[in-house]
Every structure is written in C-alpha cells, then in structure tokens.
Amino acid sequence: MCKLALFGGQPVRERLLPYSRQSIDQSDEGQVLSVLRSAWLTTGPKIGAFEDQFAERTGVRHAVALSSGTAALHACLHSLGLGSGDEVILPSISFAATANAVLYQRAKPVFAEVSQETLLIDTTDVENKLTEKTKAVIAVDYAGQPCSYEALRAIADNKHLALIADACHSLGATYQDRPVGTLADCSCFSFHPVKLITTGEGGMVTTNDTALADRIRSFRNHGFSKDHLERARENTWYYEMTDLGHNYRITDLQCALGLSQLPRMLAFIERRRGIARLYDLALEEITAVKPLGKEPERTHAYHLYVVRLELDQLNADRDLVLKALRAEGVGANVHYMPIYLHPYYMEHSGGRPGLCPRSEKVFESLLSLPIFPGMRDHDVDDVVEALKKVVRAFAR
Ligand SMILES: *Cc1c(COP(=O)(O)O)cnc(C)c1O
C-alpha cells in the first residue's frame, strides 16, 4: 500500500489543486481594459448594461448590482423593512454572511436544521421555528441546488413572511423549470472569484418588485434619491438623502468583467456538471464517501461538490482526512461550520452547541472536493486517486 504524503510518502500531485478558481479569458481582459480607458470607472454605463443582461437571462424584471453578495443580502433585508425585534429564519449551515446581514439590521437570526442528505433548509423545522416575531425566511441554495421553494412559498404566504433566496451558489440552476432569481421575493447573488461567474468582488439582487428594487438602488448609494448618471443626464447637481444607506456600489470595471463572463455562464455550469458526474461515478466504488442527495424537479449549478464521510468506516475524523488530501495535493475544503458556533454568535446571538443537533452532526462529515470550469479530467482523476488512497489508509 502507498504511504500517505502526510506521513512522508509520495504525493498524488506535486502542485496543489485548489478547490475553486476563476476562469478569465482574453475577452474579459479586453473588456476591463476598455473601461479603464473610458470616462467612467464607476457609476457609469456598464452598471446598467450588466444589470439589464442579468435580468434578461434570469427572466426577472429588476436586477440591481452591488459591491458584494453580502451587500446584496443586507440591502434586501433593509429594503424589506426588517429591523430590531424581527426574527429571520435561515439554515444553520451557510456562509456567515447570510446571518450577518440579519444582524446588520439588528434583527434576530433564528437557525433551522438542514437535511443531512442535501444540506438544504428543513422546511418542517422552519415551521417549528415560527413565532409571532418571524418576518422573513432566507433560503440558501446550498452547493448550487435550489431549496424546496414550493413548500417555502406556502409557509411564507400563510404567515405573511418575506421569502429571500440566498442564491450565491445557484446562479444558472432551475426549480420546476423556473430559473433561480425568480423563485423568491428577492434573490441575492455573489460574483466572488470562487462563484459561478466573477466580477472580482460583486453581487446582485433580482426581484419583480419595482418599489423594492428602487429602495435597494438608493440603499447602495448612501440613501440618495438620484445617482451620478441620472444627475448627469438631467443636467442637475441636486440630490436628496432620503434613507440611511451605504456605499455598496459596484464599479464599471467589475461590471465589464461581469458582462464578459455572463455569456459563458452556461458553459461554465455544463463543465461543473460534467465534473460532478465523474465524481458521482467514482464515488460508487468508495463506500466511505457519499455524494450529497439530489432532489427532484430541479437542476444543479454545482458551485460546490460536497461529500459526506462515513466516519464509522474510518479511523480518522474529517479534519485528518482533509489534511491528508491536502498533503496529496488536493485542495479539499469545508463548507460550512454551523454559523451559530462561531465565537461571535456564541457570545452575542445566543449560539450554543446543541441548537441544531442534526446540522452539527452532518457538519462533522462534510468535505468539499475541487470543482471549477478550468479543471481537466486528469485533475478529477487525481482527486479520485487521492481520495481512494486516503480512505484506504484510514479504513477501519
Ligand atoms: C459567497 C456567499 C455570500 C457572500 O458573498 P460575497 O460576495 O462574498 O459577499 C453569501 N452567502 C453565501 C451562501 C455565499 O456562498
């Protein structure tokens, strides 16, 4: 048997394969360069052009671009009128920003269990966590698979709650043949380099609610009633501040990159799906490693390829398996620790071990394998070989 690289053996790969990486081509470079040479680096024409393209592709009335996915979440919660005393139900396993946006509004994040098969929010537990103070639910399309929006919509309508989609993983996916971005009252996207398309940093909100879109546009620009471009067009200096907003603007440089990336989004996702199929097939032979479950009536964008370790078949915990994979040159990762176990949440927001026991248990077994459009089939083979080697070495 081969000795693990972790213990001084020969690694499967010499150079670390990252878990994700952006795909940038020459046309991306050209588009950004042309903005650099233009009159508008920010608040210019590329913002609206990117928003219009994004809205058209998503089949939604309004798309509002912001400086990040986090800003998009914050802008939604603010513009929906959430504030202190309000409760917002969200899944316990997500990126911290999903819950942080609730805290920015001085509202209370209420953590729900996730399914141990799919890591999607458990709609039964959403119902369990409803109180008189509940004002909104945030659904996170974990790894790129849309949540059960039919059930969530029914709960939201019944209790007059806002339904927000954190779609930072699921751009390009569908639910009942409807695109992500149209499935909730508002949907939030991120264009961080690891996400499905990138603008460096950046985010987007989609909604069919015109008044909500207007409030978000104002909120990203200090709460002003008019932006720079509108004032230039109307030949006026005058603007008023009607809300306390932020500088959450995205730049024209970023939107030029987004405009250039958008036409390749479906090709990126197709490649991600191809890699996922290769992993699915390979895992049929590795009993200690299971892919996440797939729900019917939806397509997957595969922002992440997440597996669960069958820890009772192994003499190692997840962290040791991850370390061993990294030593083999495979950049495995973990998405995510239950948010309420972060020290800040334990200290300031009522987090404590045992709050969502099922989520905590599945978290112990989670591992994300590398997946990104630029990965080649031989890279996938390396991951599978390293996984087999590590699992064999730690087999109980
Ligand atoms: C990436 C991400 C965010 C935040 O996006 P940024 O653009 O990094 O601010 C929020 N929620 C989830 C689930 C994410 O994956």
Structural description of this entry:
The protein is an alpha/beta fold. It is built from 14 helices and 13 strands. The chain has helices spanning 26-36, 45-58, 69-79, 96-104, 123-128, 149-159, 210-219, 228-234, 252-261, 265-283, 318-327, 343-348, 357-363, 377-393; strands at residues 62-66, 87-91, 108-112, 134-140, 162-166, 174-175, 178-179, 186-190, 203-207, 289-291, 298-299, 305-309, 366-369. The chain has a 7-stranded mixed β-sheet with strand order 1-9-8-5-4-2-3. Strands 7-6-11 form a 3-stranded antiparallel β-sheet, with no helix packed on it. α4 (96-104) links the parallel β2 and β3 (108-112). The longest helix has 19 residues, at 265-283. The mean pLDDT is 97. Pyridoxal-5'-phosphate (PLP) binds at residues 68-70, 94-95, 97-98, 140, 166, 168-169, 190, 192, 203. Residues 68-70, 94-95, 97-98, 140, 166, 168-169, 190, 192, 203 line the site of pyridoxal-5'-phosphate (PLP).
